[in-house]
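Inputs:
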Amino acid sequence: MIIIKNTQPQRHASVTMTTLRAFTCDDLFKFNNINLDPLTETYGIPFYLQYLAHWPEYFIVAEAPGGELMGYIMGKAEGLVPKEEWHGHVTALSVAPEFRRLGLAAKLMEMLEEISERKDAFFVDLFVRVSNQVAVNMYKQLGYSVYRTVIEYYSASNGEPDEDAYDMRKALSRDTEKKSIIPLPHPVRPEDIE
Amino acid sequence: MAARGHVHDPNDRRLRPIYDYLDNGNNKMAIQQADKLLKKHKDLHCAKVLKAIGLQRMGKQDEAFTLSQEVATLEPTDENSLQALTILYREMHRPELVIKLYEAAVRKVPTSEEYHSHLFMAYARVGEYKKMQQAGMALYKIVPKNPYYFWSVMSLVMQAISAQDEKLSQTMFLPLAERMVEKMVKEEKIDAEAEVQLYFMILERLGKYEEALDLLRGQLGEKLTSELQSRENKCMVLYRRLECWPECNALSFKLLLKNPDDWQFYLSYFESLFHLIDQGWTPPEGEHCVEGEVHSSVEQAISFVEERITAEDGKDSRPLRGPYLARLELIKRLRERGCPEEQQLGEPLELMSQFFVKFGSKPCCITDLKIFLDLLNPDQYVQFINRLMEAVPLGAPENNGVALPGDTRALQRHLCVSQITRLLGLHHMLDAAGKLSVIRELKSHYHNGLQFGDENMLWQCLGILEEGLSHSPSNAQFKLLLLLLFCQLGAFEPVVDLYSSLDAKHVQHDTIGYLLTRYAESLGQFAAASQSCNFSLRFFHSNQKDTSEYIIQAYKYGAFEKIPEFIAFRNRLNQSLHFAQVRTERMLLDLFLEADISSPLEDSVKSMSLCPEEDDISWDNMRDNRDLTVLTSWDPKYRQLTAEHRQRSLEEEALWLRVRSLTLRLVGALASISHPPSTHNSEKTTENGVVPKASTLQHLLSQLESTLSQASQFTEKHTQPYPFFGPPSTRLAQALASGSCQCQLSAFQLTTLLLELEIAGLDMPPCVSEKRQHWYPNALLLFLEILSKCKGDLLEVKDGQCKAQPSLLERLVFFVETTSVVLWVSGYCGGVLRPLKSSLQKKKKKKKETTVALPEVFTGFQEYTSSLQTLLSQSLDHIKGQEVSLTALKLADLSLEGQNSEEGTFTKAAMDKVQSSYLRSLQEVGELLRKRMDTMKALKI
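Outputs:
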């Protein structure tokens, strides 16, 4: 078994000229410039409210000086501590087209990692479409590696299976031996992931 | 939904199959299984409830309810029944019954933590804050856990927030909440972050900012760790509120050293700095303040900003924009104060050009510079653009004389310069030829990078956008622009696909749903209109139930700050302008399409439980949730959306909504006074019901009159259109111009004249009957006027150019809507006149009078309806004629000036779409008119 070391030098993630603050319900009325992007899903209200009620600290929005929303990250903490599966999870991360290439996504990821560190999590993970090379590369640059492939994780709006996902992970300081990111040899099915 | 609880309970085993059937949607089998079980075990109450759930899900609400109440009156305390009843009540949308259920349960089992907690949540679902406060304390007494205590405290805060009387909040609820928390603080029982949050919320709402600051900076404040920088951010808000400018300045300074790109702290740094200067603040000996070093002079600010820039310039990694923009912001603020020191920072034109050199290839460069363009003098504009162009690497000019960028970064830079040129109004200063040459130039730029007046320009735009979309099928801006242009051209058909490809869902129905609902019906695409309303309505209806669940979750997780936020959110959706609009329009549409066609008007009104006496729109608290900036605009300031535009648009929408809602309620009132054709003995209803209902009608009618006069004042006052990318105007101006408002109003007025006749009988004063006799020809004239305004060609080719007149289509729709109203009213009149006529004839027969002429009250009506009939057939002929000429139109032969063949293909495809959409609209309108014609047979008296 090969242990993928996080050999990427930790580039100091550059920060954008932005106001970073907690996402609130009112932002749901303003996020069209971000969410009309085809790779960004607009969820039902219950989904957002669940995150806001349970993990408000993990739901952060970046606002431009003019008041436009630039991007947001939405995440949660879950998993069992004794099984060393307690971790931060990135549920959604999206940046509006006009605010890309500023390092905003990196900044938001850095914040999510810091919150997860404070919660004493072992790692942070996320799912990404295998075809979304731009995103996969960005996460690799931020120190994430592919932990496993999840077969047909994404489905089309008609319910048909659409695409596989990479489950990407980055170990946090609590996982000193980086055990959580040792890649699995075989792909898994969506029903096999917790 | 699975049975939980004790595995050993034999009832669980017995109930299991019913749960499974219900889970699988097999309601019939679930009911059968429940019946079987109940035969053997009569008092297995839960089986009854499960059966009721099955019945409810099969649409047998009444049976389900009766059955559930058999169990409910027994006040069950077994977990299975309670859980099942809760599920049933939730599906019935009867949350208040859950309360009753658990109130009984805790009465019987007063020590149950679980039932008490369910009771608390049941109160939370309906917002019974006082009961929640008590239930929380009751829980805490049974099991002294902190969360229960703080549930109770939070419920006090909610009583404060929801109290009508602010004084009561400030003097009773909040102080009580504060004391409750203080008690826990004294006893050193505070242990969770949520509890400190709640304490902070209370102090903040009480305006005890000093105390709130002490809390944040003290030991308890250390618990605020989940959210990043939470303490600092909260302190900052308080410093500003308390005008503690030294602390505000020092903290901003500190945070900026840590993160030189956080814009909000530059703003608070500058704000506090100028306050300190104005106050003549001087630093004391030793430490400046608890937050550390304070800046209190322009010199310090200048060197602070310059230092940040030097630090940025000397860095290897990606430079931050913050420091450079902070310099421009400081210049702006110094200039506003008339400080000559601004010059020490440099010349804005120079600095902005440098900024462009550094960040021009970032898409956000334009939004950054936009804020500071005011720093330039108008006579510097051209020079500025030229300076910027020097920093755009372009290749050698092509044979059309246009030089093009070689890569994406260069393209982005060029795009930014074009956007600034437009923002500065330089495009708008050009004459038509100049504008066309800019278009040509931008088009070459577009083709190169695979990017981008009079009517010809509009068709060209459509072509370019269609082409753009074919290259970038997921570009939302292309879609939105196309959608807008098609709507302006009156072609709704292509809009359906464009909108659905945006994949707008859920809350987006509220924010951008107006793009659909504004146009679908008004352009005569009724099926699409119903569907658009349904999308939005489904979203709004689920909101109520959904948000309540998460208010409960927020209690469970101690996210106290979120509770008022969720409630405000729920209200914002319930009071949404768009919600009220789709509610009203959906009902109107159903009536236009069906009432008196597939079922009588009275039945249609009854089935939508439309109550004319009730106004269900909260006019005073209306929320405009539309996203009016979803389209990106690079137009100069004077063409941009302003707060005044927003205000005006909301006012206009509300006025139009009022007209529509009153129309709807008037139709409802009309239905309530109408006689079902089968009732022979109409005199009785006259005595009991008609008079109060008539007063409703009268009342609504006078409201409609005054609203219409307000509306015409409004349209006279506001003749300037909104910016192109701003809100679409409502149908109001067109409705007034087409004459349909006046015509519908007059139709409703006839109703009141007939009511008088109905009450007084045939022996009424002559002045009233005279009024009525005058009414008919006037009404016909009004009706004819609408039709005459519909005449003309929707689409024609003239001098090789394609011309569209979409307003004709909108008027045609007003014509068909008005036809419905006029015929409903006529239906009512027929119903009043028919019995009068037959009783008159009976009397005549008795008196053996033969062939005496009918009184004019009858003949007048008969003449009126036959003229209506003629008018309607004319309108159908007109529609038929339009369909024929549209079909015959050959758009393929058009030669399109200034477009190459590939562009031409896209433009022609767009024209085809418009043509086909017009045809479809005409078909839908024609079909409805024909159906309305058919209902005229029933008007015979």
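Remarks. Confidence is low (pLDDT under 50) at residues 1-16 of chain A. Chain A touches chain B through 54 residues (CB under 8 Å).
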